């Protein structure tokens, strides 16, 4: 087996430090978008990042990832009062994918994250 087959996607991205760097850049991009920045006006973004890192660890198969997170109810609860529209969600997804490109994240990992975006959209976007 080649190394890329034995390592998890989490490890291939560069593990915890790389995910942290990506999330820092991602939130910079989000706060730069006038359509999105208002959502985070009264929120400490640095408090959200570890939660999002935890979600990514589950998704990318990181070591010791939690197995007890029910993403549907967790994400629905976290966003239920925010009124996130489909267009807000799409723009956020674009900022994330642009960030992954900037960090030269391998294509198969980008695909995993695109799949996750499609899966979680109904939990984040207000009904
Ligand atoms: C892939 C899509 C998304 C994922 C996986 C995600 C994930 C998360 C997570 C894990 C939290 C932390 C929940 C907690 O503290 O326990 C959170 C909070 C938050 N998210 Fe998202 N999110 C997504 C999309 C969005 C979008 C599109 C917006 C708005 C444009 C948004 C706005 C927020 C805000 C404002 C909070 C803080 C809520 C609060 O503390 O009151 N999220 N998100």
The CATH class is: Mainly Alpha
> How much β-strand is present in the residues?
under 5%
- Give the CATH topology: Globin-like
How many domains? 1
Secondary-structure element order, N to C: HHHHHHHH
Largest sheet: none
CATH superfamily: Globins
Radius of gyration: 15 Å
| List of distinct ligands in this structure | protoporphyrin IX containing FE
Q: Distance N terminus to C terminus?
A: 45 Å
Which spans of ≥5 residues are poorly predicted at pLDDT below 50?
A: none
Shape type: globular
Overview features:
binds protoporphyrin IX containing FE, 0% strand, 127 residues, mainly alpha
Reconstruct the topology from this structure.
Elements: H1 3-6, H2 9-13, H3 15-31, H4 34-37, H5 45-60, H6 71-79, H7 86-102, H8 107-124
Helix pairs in contact: 3-5, 3-7, 6-8, 7-8
The structure holds protoporphyrin IX containing FE.
Protoporphyrin IX containing FE binds near residues 48, 51 and 117.
């Amino acid at each position: 087996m080649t190394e890329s087959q034995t390592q998890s996607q989490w490890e291939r991205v560069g593990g915890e430090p790389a995910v942290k760097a990506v999330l820092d850049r991602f939130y910079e991009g989000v706060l730069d978008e006038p359509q999105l920045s208002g959502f985070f006006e009264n929120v400490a973004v640095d408090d959200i990042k570890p939660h999002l890192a935890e979600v990514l660890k589950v998704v990318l198969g990181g070591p010791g990832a939690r197995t007890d997170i029910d993403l549907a109810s967790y994400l629905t609860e976290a966003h239920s009062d925010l009124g996130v529209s489909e267009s807000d969600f799409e723009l956020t997804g674009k900022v994330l994918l642009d960030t992954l490109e900037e960090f030269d994240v391998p294509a198969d990992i980008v695909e995993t994250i695109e799949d996750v975006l499609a899966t979680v959209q109904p939990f984040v976007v207000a009904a």
